[in-house]
Amino acid sequence: MTATTIHPSAVVHPHAKIGDGVSIGAFSVVDEHVEIGANTQVGHHSVLTGRTRIGRGNRIYHFVSLGEAPQDKKYRGEPTELQIGDGNTIREFCTFNRGTVQDAGVTRIGDRNWIMAYAHVAHDCQVGSDTIFANNAQLAGHVHVGDHAILGGFTVVHQFCKIGAHCITGLSSVIVHDVPPYITAAGNPAAAHGVNTEGLRRRGFSAQAIDGLRRAYKTLYRSGLTLDQAKAAIAAEAGSLPEAGVLADFLARSTRGIVR
Fold first, then answer.
1. Before 189, cis peptide (omega within 30)?
2. How many domains, the chain?
3. pLDDT, tens only, 229-249
4. Which of 34, 192, 234, 259 is the most exposed place for a label (fewest CB within 10 A)?
C-alpha cells in the first residue's frame, strides 16, 4: 500500500475523502465534499471544491480548479456535482465546473483523457473517455463529447453542441453545430472536411470500415440528398457497417444541426 502524502502547506478539510497513495502538493486546497481516489496526484496551488469525486490514478497538475460553482446566473448554490473518472491527465490552469439543476446536475469526465493546459469544461458537460483536448480547448455548458474525440488547440464549442466519437477538430475551430462522429471539422464557423481516416487507422479500424465511412460521408455531404434522406440511407447501411449505425444514431439525436 502506497502512503498518502500531503504537503504541510496544503489545506485539506478533515471530512474530505482521500484514498491510499494520493499526493497533494504545496498550497493546494481540498474542500469538505471532495473525494480523491487512490494514487491520484494533485499538484501545487490547485483548488478542489464542491461535490467533486475524482477516481483513481489521475495526474492533476498545478494551478487547476476543479468543482467550482458553474458560471451560470441561474445557479443558486444547489448541491450539484463534478465527477472525474480514472487515469486522466489534467494539465496546468484547467477549470472544470460542476453541473446545474437545469440539466443532469453533474458534469462528467470519463477515463484516460488527456486534457492540456488552460482547457475549460463548463457546467453539465459530458465528456467520454480517451479524448484529447489540446491547449485552450473550451467547452460551453451542456456540451457532450464522445470517446476518442480530439479537439485542436483553441477549439471553442458553443453550448448544447455534441461532438461525436473519433472526430477531430482543427486549430482554432469554432463549433456552433453538432460534429458527427468519425469526421474532421475545422474553421470559423467549423465545416466538415472529410473522414478522420488517419485517426481511425491508428485506432485499429479496418480498411473496410473506413471505406464504408467514406461512403457514408459522401451520402451525408455530397449526394445532394436532404438531411432526412441522408439519415435514412445511412441507417439502411447499419446492418453491414456498425459504424454507420453509430453515425445514424448520432444524427437522430442531433438538436443543433450538423456542421456542413
1. yes
2. 2
3. 999 999 999 999 999 999 999
4. 192
Strand pairing category for 132-133 and 168-169: unpaired
User: Which cell is 212 given?
Assistant: 464504408
Claim: this prediction has a pTM higher than 0.90: yes
Residue 47, C-beta contacts closer than 8 angstroms, at least 6 positions apart: 28, 29, 64, 65, 66, 68
Q: Which domain holds residue 38?
A: 5-142
17-41 pLDDT tens trace: 999 999 999 999 999 999 999 999 9
* Cα distances (angstroms) measured from residue 237 to each of 32, 170, 194, 197: 51, 29, 19, 19
Residue 35 domain-assigned (yes or no): yes
Q: Pairing mode, if any, of strands 23-24 and 41-42?
A: parallel
* Domain-embedded: residue 148: no
